[in-house]
Amino acid sequence: MAADSSLLADRPSVGDAVDAVASSGASAFYGPLAAAMERIVGLAATALRAPFAFILLTGDDRRCFAAGPQMPDGTSHDTGALWRSGIVERIRSGTVEMRDVIRGLIEKEARLDYAAVLIPTNARSFVHVTLVIFDTKNEAETKRAYDTAKLLVREAAKHGYGEYRAHLDFMDLAAEQYSFNDHAYMRFVETIKDAVDPNGILAPGKQGIWPRAMRETRGG
Q1: pTM above 0.70, yes or no
Q2: Which pLDDT tens digit goes with each residue over 8-32?
Q3: What DSSP designation does 208 have?
Q4: CATH assignment at residue 133
Q5: Up-side HSE of residue 1: CA atoms within 13 Å toward CB?
Q6: SS3 for 57?
Q7: End of a domain among 15, 43, 71?
Q8: Is 38 in the same domain as 64?
Q9: Cα–Cα distance between 69 and 51 in angstroms, integer?
Q10: Beta-strand runs (E) in the chain
Q11: pLDDT in tens, 95-117
Q12: 38 lies in which domain range?
């Protein structure tokens, strides 16, 4: 399918937009660059014939650029997002099982839309990244999102799937799921932590690994 170049003739490129924003000192995600982001998601939704497409930015410049005929309500508000990232085997049963478990919890418990990205990592596995998208100005919806995100960690573990990275608030919870042989893995990494960083200076609690002096208050 050929594109009509006249539609783009008077529009700045994304690179031009970035340069313009940098020279003006304006926020990075307003003005020309924001317009470019909006065009990108619009083109993506159209080209992929998807219900919706979005670019979600988190942090101080939190913004959501979305387009498509079936955009979730959250994408039109002050959007928040939580990620659940786990490794799944690349076989049909594992793929479908994980999708059904995660999707069911998000739609039934959080009453939100299921959105996921599948990232192949090798011949035998892929990363199933689940996005829990919610309206941060809706207190009840935000609570459901956080509660469900924690539930995803526990329920995935029951099916044999752990987290390969976890949200800061869920690191202890994710680490607890690796419980084989009375949490042998945690005892192993804590031994390394005590040897390398006995004073607990380096990122205490990162990925659920706490220094000895702080273990009694873990998760508190």
Answers
A1: no
A2: 444 444 445 444 434 444 444 566 7
A3: G
A4: 3.40.462.10
A5: 4
A6: strand
A7: 71
A8: yes
A9: 6
A10: 53-57, 63-67, 79-89, 115-120, 125-135, 163-165
A11: 778 888 888 989 988 888 888 88
A12: 1-71
